[in-house]
Q: What sequence folds into this?
């Protein structure tokens, strides 16, 4: 007959020194629930023949662990050592210190979000960013929504609801999470008119498709893939001429979008927003949290009358930004006024342009320390060369030489087992598995000590 009397009661647990401390930290209800669950598990183990006294001794620790695990947010900081700088699943861009400070101030204080301090009346939240965007892109006007998919959606809905939207077959892309451009166009109420073929589209294809029902010509920058070989596309300036001649607006979706020429930082050149505006696009859409290096947002810049029409669209309120992101975006955009120091102050560019020699030196320093931490667990660490990438659909076929740590162990599933353990650390460490090893690319590691302390928790 199992003897459950060795286990404490719920009341005894709550009034014990350990129980009082847990109640102070987590609240009485949470502790009562955890204690009851722990006692139920202990009783089941006693029925199975385990030592009741030992289970009673372990109970406070197990309850404390369960409470800590339940209180720990899954949305917590981690070390991105995947080699993908703008990792969609890991939150994309890390904000600049100036943006973090601005967002913190916005969270902690009332601020003039939609209040005109000079006149005392109501203001517009977009006004905090409109001037900066026009200055940096050369556009007549600008508006802001919560991401680039929303920017494309509301622009298409405004220009071509119930009308035709012309787009090249080679530009009907799928973005992350299986969101496809044709689906977005359908939700916007536009009637998709495909022109050209997957690999070749000519001016005559657009010219032949324009008619009385045409609402917009859509150009999509294929930033997340490349088609090579026997290809042809209509350049943006030529497409702008065709749109003007046909009396329809040209919407150029740049996707990631860049405000600076990335080639000046040693990266492959991407079209800038200012260039897209200068080439004649009536509207240009792009993201805030990718190459721009800010929080998630979608920007629409271009002709004043078209921006005004978008702002009158009832959808605008549904996709508007909150004060925190507006504050962070304003601070981020201000950094672009000083391009000479942008690479130092903007984390995205700082990571992307970090010299390989510097990363290799960091790997050399860290390898012995990490190896010593892993050896007791049956793993070893050695320096290795690797390749980083931008991520989030930007420069998809380009890689940047990097360096990292190659973690190995015995058994065919050693990388998977170690990866799981590193994900379970208080500060999770995320790498990638390749060729029988877990690779930690150090491009985005900001200090040696943070990785050492994270792995010491093993």
A:
């Amino acid at each position: 007959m199992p003897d459950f009397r060795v286990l404490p009661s719920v009341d005894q647990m709550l009034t014990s020194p350990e129980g009082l401390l847990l109640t102070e930290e987590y609240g009485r209800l949470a502790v009562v629930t955890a204690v009851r669950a722990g006692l139920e598990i202990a009783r089941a183990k006693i029925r199975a023949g385990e030592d009741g006294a030992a289970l009673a001794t372990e109970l406070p620790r197990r309850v404390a662990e369960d409470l800590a695990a339940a209180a720990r947010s899954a949305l917590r900081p981690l070390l991105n050592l995947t080699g993908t700088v703008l990792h969609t699943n890991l939150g994309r861009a890390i904000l600049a210190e100036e943006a973090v400070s601005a967002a913190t101030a916005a969270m902690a204080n009332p601020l003039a979000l939609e209040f005109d301090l000079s006149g005392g009346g109501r203001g517009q939240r977009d006004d905090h960013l409109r001037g900066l965007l026009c200055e940096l892109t050369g556009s007549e006007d600008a508006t802001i929504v919560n991401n680039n998919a929303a920017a494309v959606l509301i622009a298409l809905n405004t220009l071509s609801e119930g009308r035709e939207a012309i787009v090249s077959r080679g530009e009907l892309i799928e973005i992350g999470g299986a969101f496809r451009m044709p689906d977005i166009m359908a939700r916007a109420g536009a009637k998709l008119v495909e022109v050209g073929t997957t690999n070749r589209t000519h001016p005559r294809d657009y010219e032949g498709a324009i008619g009385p029902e045409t609402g917009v010509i859509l150009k999509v920058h294929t930033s997340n893939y490349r088609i090579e070989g026997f290809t042809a596309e209509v350049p943006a300036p030529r497409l702008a001429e065709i749109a003007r001649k046909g009396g329809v607006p040209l919407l150029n979706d740049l996707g990631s979008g860049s405000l600076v020429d990335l080639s000046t930082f040693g990266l492959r050149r991407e079209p800038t927003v200012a260039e897209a505006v200068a080439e004649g696009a009536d509207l240009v859409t792009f993201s805030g949290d990718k190459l721009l290096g800010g929080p998630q947002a979608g920007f629409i810049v271009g002709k004043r009358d078209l921006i005004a029409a978008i702002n009158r669209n009832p959808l605008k309120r549904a996709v508007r930004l909150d004060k925190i992101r507006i504050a962070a975006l304003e601070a981020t955009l201000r950094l672009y006024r000083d391009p000479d120091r942008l690479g130092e102050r903007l984390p995205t560019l700082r990571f992307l342009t970090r010299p390989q020699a510097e990363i290799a030196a960091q790997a050399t320093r860290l390898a012995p320390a990490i190896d010593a931490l892993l050896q007791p667990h049956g793993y070893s660490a050695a320096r290795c060369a690797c390749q980083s990438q931008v991520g989030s659909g930007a420069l998809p076929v380009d890689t940047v030489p990097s360096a990292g740590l190659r973690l190995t162990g015995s058994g065919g599933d050693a990388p998977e087992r170690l990866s799981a353990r590193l994900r379970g650390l208080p500060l999770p460490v995320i790498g990638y598995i390749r060729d029988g090893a877990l690779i930690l690319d150090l491009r985005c590691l900001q200090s040696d000590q943070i990785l050492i302390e994270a792995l010491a928790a093993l």
